[in-house]
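User: Predict the full complex structure for these chains.
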Amino acid sequence: MHDYVRIPLTEDEMPREWYNIAADFSKPLPPPLGRDGSPLRPENLAAVFPMNLIEQEVSTQRWIPIPEEIRRILFRWRPTPLRRAGALEKALKTPARIFFKDESVSPAGSHKLNTAVPQAYYNKAFGTKRLTTETGAGQWGSALALGCNWMGLALRVYMVRCSFNQKPMRQTLMRVWGAECLSSPTDRTQAGRAVLARWPNTPGSLGIAISEAIEDAVSSPDAKYSLGSVLNHVLLHQTIIGLEAKKQFAKIGLYPDVIIGCAGGGSNFAGCAFPFLADKIAGTHNPLVLAAEPTACPKMSRGVYTYDSGDVAMMTPLLPMYTIGHEYQPPAIHAGGLRYHGMAPLVSHAKHEGLMDSVALPQTECFRAGMLFAATEGIIPAPESSHAIALAIREAHRSREEGKTRTILFNLSGHGLLELSSYQSFLDGKIEDYEFTPEDLRKSLAVLNGLPSLS
Amino acid sequence: MHDYVRIPLTEDEMPREWYNIAADFSKPLPPPLGRDGSPLRPENLAAVFPMNLIEQEVSTQRWIPIPEEIRRILFRWRPTPLRRAGALEKALKTPARIFFKDESVSPAGSHKLNTAVPQAYYNKAFGTKRLTTETGAGQWGSALALGCNWMGLALRVYMVRCSFNQKPMRQTLMRVWGAECLSSPTDRTQAGRAVLARWPNTPGSLGIAISEAIEDAVSSPDAKYSLGSVLNHVLLHQTIIGLEAKKQFAKIGLYPDVIIGCAGGGSNFAGCAFPFLADKIAGTHNPLVLAAEPTACPKMSRGVYTYDSGDVAMMTPLLPMYTIGHEYQPPAIHAGGLRYHGMAPLVSHAKHEGLMDSVALPQTECFRAGMLFAATEGIIPAPESSHAIALAIREAHRSREEGKTRTILFNLSGHGLLELSSYQSFLDGKIEDYEFTPEDLRKSLAVLNGLPSLS
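Assistant: Here is the predicted structure of the two-chain assembly.
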């Protein structure tokens, strides 16, 4: 049992339904609110999203079938392997068994394709001709570019300025897959122009890019907007990760004691963890479930649980979430996918209900962890994923200190082959840590004045 | 049967032996010669290679067992999937079934890791402390960096200058995996200094980098040299590709009518094709077997079959091969791995015996093919691999013209995620073709004067 290198699943074993955790919470998820403070109705979202995805967004049905056409595309890279990080264990001299779910094998290089394909599919079915979206590090933008390319939809991507400048190859990738990619803030939207007027040298943020992408979509008749994380339907599509992992663990007669994912908007974390949280809610298992976030943007570890906007220009509904304020612009850390001010409502609710916790980690620790993982397991992790690795290593050390054999699962959300320039900066000693301070929090929460709170 | 997306193999089905085609040729492979023109004895290679690999190099045993320790490492990414390129078929409106063996899933991103691991293993077993090697595009250098890292060996890589300048991320990758990477020609070796004196602005070549790496190895007591292609033992290690593919085709009751690989030194081509050539030699099947090479460096399609040196400084033995002369420095085309002047003796012999043929393709056609493949199948192919794709597309068109359903197999030797700058150049219209001319041939073959010929 201890010698597995990777635990595969056959195509037949790939899940046929997504898991919706909203069906299982003991207290229901608080609803999103309109600007007037009243609960949002599905039709209020219709300018932004197609109705078939809105139905998923508000659904409380536990199992939602995966259409066969989507499954056929997912087969191109799924089921993904569950791998044992045996060489990493050896290097750490830990009694812990470390497993990781390898989402880096997707053709777009990350878990993001798991939702890009269904979102493109449902938009296509609805009649959408063009999608708009934001991207941080570029994982989401390139995944949606591929999804749209496969479904014959056009795509415009607003890429956060600091990532746009750091990662020209991500732009090429989107271009190869037929998408248009702009550096956000742009001067093409009111939201972008407003930001440029206030903060001309901004590194950009996901909150700004979201504002621009939504404005673009709602001002065009046949365009819709697509979000790569945060929303319920996005997390839903990602649950295929954890559903597969559970089957894989069952094959080798194990169940993870610790489950870890990095969390930017929350989708890869939720995708891996929620199917296990179902067992925790049901009382059949009691895993420790931890989200890894950067010390530069620690919304769950240092933020507050309240209603906040999902974007800078307040174009989204008010969402119930852990937040450090929708105007917070994190420093240009290399894990661009983790530079979001808020956390998915479903993940925020799970934390508030005590089902899970979060840990903030400095990026140099994460790069050291990523380097060790690359040397031992041979896979270059995305800087985002290296946060999960760093936390898994902390837990492995704890196992050693306590002399306990524990089974640790983390989600390797993506590879870092297009982020090698970040590794070069680390090797050159040019990477610094940033610790979000109480003063940062006080300042950044000022934008919440006058918004409703979660009582 | 026609609906397969990918045909997996279990770990148990991974081959336990490599296939040695030298056992099956009707005429034996001509031996390598020393500088005096007499056949080389194994001990003549002992300064450069460890004896356990030399034994493989000269072996005529048909099946050579794969040590269990190597198999355990190969399991990390092998067996690799055989995939059906259904979306590409649809785009081409071809009746042909197109399959590809996906070697891009290795952690180093290409087939090169298949031999990097055994070479590092056998060197470790022999007592080697440090390896030296050359690399073109960087696929081999990074694969050997990972192999050496896993086995605890030091590595110095001489990277062809034009690729070194085009691909800084390849250098970072080697650095992450603990290797040292130098731009060749360097001023650290006699061979490098001699080249710099004659051609100060040379883009470099594999022939030059090999000279430097060998000189480095033979002048250091505990170092050996490692080659990423060309030699018999390297091709042997790659046969796991074709052996797996045969099992995968057997599972779906098909046998390929056409088998295609790109050919630089010949190792990925041979790895995929040789196990099928065994059936052709045995007379049980008669597939068309084609090597794709660039018009800028078409050794098999435009060169001569004779004895030539494997490197510029003539440090290697004289090898029986198709060559366009060991001093030929091809233009800096983007498929850096195909810029080698000669072809592996085993492949050259197979062509000379009429078992296979070669086709030269211009690089713009290959980039167009690579773009179409990326759009349809979602995988960015290495510029080298796109030569195989372009030839598979020509064969698919031929199927359509002839109205014949044929089964085409090509080897996707690696992904192009670290070569996206080449795709950007293509998208920007900056890529030009070069056609090797009879005048080029006349000039470049002058270096063969006085060398023995194959009678």
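The first strand of chain A starts at residue 6 and ends at 7.
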